[in-house]
Each structure stands twice: as C-alpha cells, then as structure tokens.
Amino acid sequence: MFDWLKLLLLPGEIPTVTQSIVAIMLAIGTGVFFGRLKLGKVTFGVSAVMFTGLILGHFGYRIQPGILDFIRDFGLILFVYGIGLQVGPSFFSSFRNEGLKFNILAVSTVLLGGIITVALFYMTGLKIEDLVGIMSGSVTNTPGLGAAKNTIEEITNSFPDKKFNDPTIGYAITYPLGVFGIIGTIILSKFLLKINPDEEMKKFRKSKINRELPLVHKKIRVTNPEYFGKTLHQTIKEFGREIIISRLKHSGSIAVKSPTMDTELQDRDVLMLVGLEKDLDDFIATVGRPSADLFIESDNQIRKKNIYVTNSNVIHKKLSELDLYNTFDLKVTRVFRAGREILPRPSLELFYGDKLVVIGSQEGIEEVEKIIGNSEKKLLEPDFLSLFGGLLLGVILGSIPIVIPSLPVPIKLGFAAGPLIVALLISRYGGISFIHSYINTGATYFMKDFGICLFFAAVGIHAGDGFYDNFIQYNGWLWLLYGCAITFIPLILMVIVGRFIMKINYLQLVGIMSGSYTDPAALSFSTNYLDSDIPIQTYAQVYPLVTIFRIFVASLLILFFS
C-alpha cells in the first residue's frame, strides 16, 4: 500500500528527478537540524549538511548527474555572490586601516598551504587532484574545491583521454579535520599564550582611538569673540576638519533653523554639530563651550526624518547635484550605507538603499521624499532583475578564458571567483546600470546559506557514494596525516607571526585564523568562546581576498602539476 512512499523516500540505484530532489531535501533538512545542536560550545551550523550528505550517500542515496552538477554549481554561485555583497563595503574600507596587514598575513597562510601541498606531491607520489582535495578539506575551503573541479572539467573537455581522480574524496576525508583543527588551535593558543579576553578587549578599544569611529552629535554655545560675524563656511575652513552644523539657534530665541554656509555666527549662538567625537570636542574648545540648551533639539520649526534612496533617477547622483538645501531648505546630516555611517560631503554619490538622515521643514521633507523615493516596501521586495543580472555578470566573468603560456588550457576564474569579484565591485561602486548592490539583509543571509546548503548536499551525497571503500582504498588515515600538515603548520606560524611580530590583538587574530580557513564553524565557536564579536570584523576583512587566492591556488596546482 505504501510502496510509492518507500520508492520516494528510500535510496535507489538509478534515481528519478523526484528521488534526487528528496535526497537533497533530506541532506539539507537533517543537516540543518544537527547543525543547531551544541557540542560543548561548538555548533556546526550549515556545515553539518556536508556530514549528513556523506551519511546519506554512504547508505545509497544518489542524485542524477545532471541535477548534481546544477545544484553544486548554482549553490556555489549563490554562496560566493552573497558573501561578496555582505562583506564588500567593509573589505575595501579596511585597507585604509589595518586591513592590509591582516590580508598579508592571511594570504601568506594560503600560499604556505599551497607550498606544503606541492611538497607533499613530490614526497608522497599522490596525484595532484587528490592533494588539492585534501588541501581544500583541511582548510574547509568550499570555493577552492569548486574551482578545482571546474579546472578538471576544462582539462577533460580539451583532453578527453586524460583521467583524473575526484578531489571530493580527499575533501570529504579531511574536512572534519579542518573544522576541529582550527577550533583546537584557538583553544590551545589561548591557553599557551595565557590570553585574558577582557584584557584583549581593553587593548582593542584603546587601539581604536583616532581610527574609524561612529559619528556623534554635540551642542556648542559660541563664546569666542574671534568668530563673531564669521560665516559657517569661514569657521569650518579655519578649523580644517569635516563637521556638519545641522541646527542653529540665536541667543534669547526659541526659533531653530537649519543654517546655510553663509550664515554669520553671533554671540551665544547655539549650534548642533555632527562628526567624529574628537573633532567636535576640538571645535567646541576652539569656538566656544558645551551647551545644555534643550530648545535646539525642538522639532517645532524643523523636522528630522530618515529617507531611503529608492528612486532610480537619483542613484549615482552626488549630493551637490541634488542641492537639497537651496532647493528645499533641507539638510542631510548623516548617511547610512551597509552598516557604515558616513558624513554627507557634497561629493558623496548616492547608492540604492542608502538611508539619509535629513532635517528641515515638513513641506520640504515631503517634496524630497518624492525625489529620493523613500519606499521601504520597495526595499523589502526582492529585485530579481538586479540579483540575477549580477549573477549573470559573475558567471560571464568567471567563464572568460585567460591564456597563460605553458599551461595546457586557459585558466578561468570559475563559478567561485567570478561572482565573488563582481559582488565585491558592485558593493563598492553601488551597482552597474540597473544592477545595484542593495539586497535586504535577511535576503542576503538566506541566499548565502541556501547556496552553501545546496553545495554541501550535492558534494556530500556524491562523496558519500563509496566513502568507506574510498577511505580504506586510499588509506584515509594517511591522508588525514597529510591534511594535518596543511592544517596546523600554517596556523601555528600565523599565531607566532601575528602575535609576536605583527603585534595583532588576539581577538582580531582569531578572526584572521577563521577567515584564512574560511571556516564559519570556527568563527561561531570563537565568538562564543571569547565572548566577543571582534573576530567577526577581521573575518570579514580577510575572507574575500583569501577566497580568491584559495581559488587561484587550487586551480593553478591542477594546471601545473596534473
């Protein structure tokens, strides 16, 4: 009576389309469930989908070859594109501070792992595709595995007689080692270095002085006679640092206005300032003294409102082009973009999804809303034209053949690096034509996690087919030993160099360790173990460049040594 249900849910040697879909759903569903369970302080999250896929593949579940390739590649594309959009803004801005130092350390770790892999190639006699799989698993790098498989496919298309082993086997054997290896290194290094997370947090906060800090607002009463009769333009120019004067109230009056740059200062004027805290403190000390006036915060004459950029006609226009103050008597005091707070300079170019904090009259704000858009509903709706346009550009970039002399086939960025680079550039420059960088935060997380779940399910089920036999056949314990060299040697050297030579804060160093191995499970563990969100910041700073280098290293190793 229930034969149809058995046929649907139980594994089959030659699966139908429906059975293939069921296998994928089972792998993802059970993987997400087990990924939420805690092992001490460790949760594996979506990484557990890889393990449940291996188990299902071992017990006979299969996916049709065509569906398998599609699910694997499409999942990888969604994952890396989502990562690029998520970390792109902080990735580029970080190079103005410590990002360059962090990325040099992280990329050096990637290159060292590649050198160790080459050394193992000459010492062990293993085929390079097996070692690249071992390397990718040992550093939990999924895009590197995808790039290796794409490169093998390109070579096979050009040289049909050339045979390759599947790098997924080595990846599946050493992947758990990569996950637990970095977690073990974090625990051991904290113990050996006698790290006190609270002390490290204090040092981190102290080091952040005079760096990229949040904008604040303060009030000042003008008392320095040198500035009486001077315009705001002259005053700010003499001060020499960027601040915004959003409101002004004359002494003895309760009328508050948004001043123009040619407004002249008078004795005991009260100003509302926006800028970096140190800059505001210095300005107040120069021009007057702090004020406790409450009338200037009144909204009787002027209103304050957040306006979202959703009208395509103003995207990529500069604030100076819109000239909102002279046209509508309205001033922009702050701009929020991808979690960052930006001072609204006249040269600032608007991106889709920017949040402008404006002050002015109710009538002026209503008029500007018509121009800027301010449709929060539109921001919540998925813009599939922009999303799939960006994905298409990424696939096209990843498919461009790059001819390098002496290589058997042209090298390609592939489905991993192509979409990642496009997403980084789109997030940096706000978009290309109708393709913009803004995607709702929840949608970005969904796309990223859904993509990696699809990839893990496809790779896990495929690798699980004969996994035990492969482990015995290829002497899996020996492969784990090779993986240990790739996992631990770069990690140990990173801790030594980062801590003692580069003097990097341990909380930041842990984020670099997790980012260099592109390991979200280790990142999740470290934030709980150290009770700090600092590792997340440095993880985001190094992840994009590390991913690109791991993709290139995996592809070049296959091309040079196969």
UniProtKB/TrEMBL annotation:
Q: How does it sit in the membrane?
A: Multi-pass membrane protein
> Could you name the domain of life of the organism this protein comes from?
Bacteria
User: Which coarse location class describes where this protein primarily resides?
Assistant: membrane
Q: Which residues form the RCK C-terminal domain?
A: 289-374
What is the annotated localization of this protein? Cell membrane
Q: Which InterPro entries match?
A: AAE_transporter, RCK_C, RCK_C_sf, YidE_YbjL
Q: Name one GO molecular function term.
A: monoatomic cation transmembrane transporter activity
Q: Name one GO cellular component term.
A: plasma membrane
The processes (GO biological process) annotated in the record are: potassium ion transport
The membrane-spanning stretches of this chain are 16-35, 42-61, 73-92, 104-123, 169-193, 384-404, 416-439, 446-464, 476-497, 542-561
Keywords associated with the record: Cell membrane, Membrane, Transmembrane, Transmembrane helix, Transport
- Please report which protein family the annotation says this sequence is part of: Belongs to the AAE transporter (TC 2.A.81) family.
Q: What is this protein called?
A: Putative transporter
Organism annotation:
Kaistella flava
- Tell me the classification of the organism that encodes this protein: Bacteria, Pseudomonadati, Bacteroidota, Flavobacteriia, Flavobacteriales
